Amino acid sequence: MKILTTIDEIRKWVKEKRLQGKQIGFVPTMGYLHEGHLSLVEAAKQDNGAVVMSIFVNPLQFGPNEDFATYPRDMERDVGLAEKAGVDVIFAPEVSEMYPYYPQLTAVEVREITRGLCGASRPGHFTGVATVVAKLFNIVQPDTAYFGQKDYQQVQVIKRMTADLNMPVEIRTVPIKREKDGLAMSSRNTYLSEDERRQALCLSRALLLTRELFESGERNADKLNEAIKERISREPAASIDYIEICDADSLEPVAEIKGPAVVALAVKVGKTRLIDNLVLEG
Amino acid sequence: MKILTTIDEIRKWVKEKRLQGKQIGFVPTMGYLHEGHLSLVEAAKQDNGAVVMSIFVNPLQFGPNEDFATYPRDMERDVGLAEKAGVDVIFAPEVSEMYPYYPQLTAVEVREITRGLCGASRPGHFTGVATVVAKLFNIVQPDTAYFGQKDYQQVQVIKRMTADLNMPVEIRTVPIKREKDGLAMSSRNTYLSEDERRQALCLSRALLLTRELFESGERNADKLNEAIKERISREPAASIDYIEICDADSLEPVAEIKGPAVVALAVKVGKTRLIDNLVLEG
């Protein structure tokens, strides 16, 4: 497995693979890999002859009071995991390679679907995500790119951007990977103390409860919302950022579930903000 | 020469040419071709084995009180001129092909360099330009794209966008093409009455005067500005939108010309808004 750090190098690498007739699969990450990332690699390997993973903690998508500086990083461990998973090349640029001057003048903005959910609590976040993904797509020029469903709104933003800007990249979503007890895998789980880790289960448990209520016929968003709130408020370290039940495409809140919907949560457990979601085929 | 109207068709056409080992040159236009456009085709033919011209009047870059509906269109004439100039394929999509729903959610914004000049008089214009050019680049995937220097700020915006988003396209600027008497060629010149056409010469004449003053040593922007204003105000049908002397890259106004600068004008002659500019190697 190769590790490349410049745009010229990765372009040259991809070009060679393409000349060999290989499809290019791309897994963009911020590193500190867990099984969620590795499931993206697995999907990419099934579809493509060559798999590129980027590892880049993108400053543009962190707010001024967020955890850019402290976001967990461990390149050595990541390299081992990526190689074992069958990644062919890691693209791990410095910030100065991606943003020769920072912040750059050009931004990709996706409106409407970024208004609610994480977009409301993290202003500018999705513009940072869309912009860096546009850059990475233009650098790597993959056939297909793989994103985890845990970041549901992010996937919608990237699908929208790709369609709206006619980017020649297919977007595949891979289901949420969970720990044995149900906690959605996330690099930020490493922030949790042992006690917080136990309380953090309230997100997936609340979603499980939601699914049960839905399957027994409940379609009213307020009722489902109340049940989630009640479950989460049992944990003293947990404070709700948002609970939303939205149309699965437009991300507009719904009052009654009639079509495909997503139940999306953001909960702070101690100081750690965690997200999770559940798609209901209404 | 082929005329294609769907994204799938033009992608397929370009792919074939690429498999034949040809470099792709791209000339994006809004049609109603004049010699300015044809000089872009000429440059594209010199550098590339295949030349794509797009003809698309982009609604996204027109303000609500601007001339989208009345913008001159003449596809038959354009086809004849393009074919004669050696264009290999015209991509002429309908609005519904480019914007399946309008306005789309995703926009490409370039900040700072879009604040002044035409950006100030035409809010949203450059976001519309950057967005459609990003789309066209992703659709056509050219090696090199050609733009006329008459739209100086537009060229800067596109160069900035291309660099910031790491688009794999080279941008070439082609000098302003002028009528024999000096008027910068523009599709909008067709709006001018005979009398306005005569008065419209004040733009190029004022710039000629600026060059003379500059060459005789004048470096003070206010002084040059005054001379331009005086020249233009001689024409009763002419009203100044802006006269700016700016750094050639950042487009920030300068007080004294010390490095490369651009003198940029927008003047309404009757109801027709015309632009022109002059680059001074300070």
Overall morphology of chain A: globular
Number of helices of chain A: 10
Helical proportion of chain A, percent range: 25-40%
Average the pLDDT over all residues of chain A and give the rounded result. 97
**Strand percent estimate of chain A:** 15-25%
Distance between the termini of chain A: 44 Å
Task: Give the helix/strand class of chain A.
Answer: alpha/beta
- Spans of chain A of at least 5 consecutive residues whose pLDDT stays below 50 are none
For the record, the count of structural domains of chain A works out to: 2
Q: What does the main sheet of chain A amount to? A: 6 strands, parallel
Which value, in Å, is the CA radius of gyration of chain A?
19 Å
Give the ordered list of helices and strands of chain A: EHEHEHEHEHHEHEHHHEEE
Oligomer: homodimer
Specify the CATH homologous superfamily of the largest domain in chain A.
Answer: HUPs
CATH class of the largest domain in chain A: Alpha Beta
CATH architectural category of the largest domain in chain A: 3-Layer(aba) Sandwich
CATH topology of the largest domain in chain A: Rossmann fold
- Could you give the count of β-strands of chain A? 10
Main sheet strand line-up of chain A: 1-4-3-2-6-7
